[in-house]
Every structure is written in structure tokens, then in C-alpha cells.
Amino acid sequence: MSGISAAPLLVIVPGAADPVVLRRHLPSCAIRVIESLDTADLNLAARAEVLVLRSGHRLDAERLTRWPKLRHVIRAGSGLDGLDVEALAARGVTVHRNPAPAADAVAEWALAALLGLARRIPYGHATLFRGQHTKQQCLAPPISRMRVAIWGAGPVGRACATALAPYVDEIAFAARPSLPDTLPARPGHELPTWADAHVVALPLTGENRRRFGPEFLTTACERRPLLICVGRLGTLDVDACLRALADDRLGGLALDPIEQADLPLWPADAAPGPLNLLATPHIGAQRHDVREALDRWVAATAAGALTSTGRTVR
């Protein structure tokens, strides 16, 4: 037992990394999997030095008190909205993240969503399951004539622009002072009346929370645009977007970053009729090559983090 207690302890939530891979790369590290931060065994939390998280888990100042030995948080992705970064910094906890490996895979999903919504595939699929043949209602313009607005110019936003550019007429990023001059841009207030499709790849900050809601939908409704969210679901007012879709003010809606906590998207007694809606359980980065790259990065990052704190990790 003394050998186990002396080993550095790494705790991981499901989906953040493959524990089999981590055990292979970190043989002298004790690795434990927990379902959530709220249900973690307190004795386990009290000994953990490294915590590997994914989106959908929140580590705030109150929860942090249960992890007194925590020195490193590893986030195999981009979003920090679940982390109280200031509280972690105050405690001397280092946060590691790596958004780059997933960007191309998320952009691939965005391209699939654009093609699917533009051709009204989700709507046609939904109506067939209701015994309706809606070929005429699926008539659609080609995406080659579409203008696409990209909201967010991080690795994911830029990858989406690269993936979509060969297939659409024009792409513009929402202008910001930090946007490189090499990227095509338009003022954000112009995009709702300019674009035929919007790709939302924004972090969930106070500025961006529910940013795509009634005001945006009212301004954009004349174009009946497609709205594709590859960032955080909280950047959308989901109820308002679903109502706009049902009222034909949106031409299509694609939501990838849906977590278990976001369900149900609508009450059971208010389930919508057939919609041009694509909803997936945060699968944008769920590609074998991406998972393998992130697992290797998590293992290398954990090994380096523990070595830097004086722990012996082979």
C-alpha cells in the first residue's frame, strides 16, 4: 500500500483521454477514472496532483477546495469556460491546453453540417420518419453561391474557413482588433445581413454568452441563414434559435457541442415538428487520429508536469 500511496496520482474524467494509453506511457503514475468532479471520492481528490478534464466539467473555487494537492490541470481541447482560471492561478495550479489537434476534425464536421443543412438533409430525413415525402420542400440553392461568416478566429475558426473556402462564394471573419490582416473580415454588425451561413467558433466568455439570440435572429431573418455552432453551446440562445428555425426565420441549425447537461434540448411535451436541424453529442473532434494525438499529448504533458514538480515518472 505504501508504494501506491507514494506514486503520483493522476485523475481523469471519461472522454478526456484514454486511461489505457496513459497507463502505458506513465507506468509509475497511479491513474484513476472518475465520473464527475462532484461525485469524486474525497480521499482520491485529496491526493490527486494532476487532473485531466474535458468540456462539460466545472472546476470552480468551491470545488477546488476538495483537491488540495492539485498542481496541474490538463485540458485536451480549447475551452476554458468550465475552469475558474483565476482561482487556479491563485492556488498555483498550472493549466495546460491544446486546441490545435482537433481543429481540422471540427472543421470537417462544419463542412458536413453546411452541406447537410444547405441540401436540407436533416429536414428530409425527419419527414420521412413521419411518413411524409417532402422532395419539393428540399429544393435548395448551391453552396457555391453562399457567403459564410466565421465568428471566432482561433484554431477552429481558421480551420473552418480553410475547409469551407473551396466550396462557397465568399468567407469573412467577424472583425476584431486582434484579427490578422491576412484574414478576410467584415464588421460584426454587418454580417447578419450579409451572410447566408454563420459558423460560430467562439469561446464562452461573458461577452459571447447567448450572443446569437433574438437580436441577431431578427437582424438576420431576411436571409434565412444557416447557423452552425462548433464553439460552445452557451454562445447561442438555443430556445430562441429553435423557435426561429420552427418559424422559418432560420434556414437550418447545426449544434455539435451538446453535453449531457444540456439535455433535453426542449421539453418532452413541446418537441418540435420536422426541422432542418442537425444535433450531435460534441463529436467534432471524435476522430481516431485526433484522439490518438491528444492522448499522446496528455501523457507527455503529465510526465513533464510531474517531473517539473520533482516527481519521478518514467
TrEMBL record:
Keyword field: NAD, Oxidoreductase
Keyword NAD: yes
InterPro entries (alphabetical): D-isomer_2-hydroxyacid_DH, D-isomer_DH_NAD-bd, NAD(P)-bd_dom_sf
Keyword NAD: yes
Xref: PANTHER family: 2-HYDROXYACID DEHYDROGENASE YGL185C-RELATED, 2-HYDROXYACID DEHYDROGENASE-RELATED
Listed Pfam families: 2-Hacid_dh_C
Domain called D-isomer specific 2-hydroxyacid dehydrogenase NAD-binding: residue spans: 111-284
Name recorded for this polypeptide: D-isomer specific 2-hydroxyacid dehydrogenase NAD-binding domain-containing protein
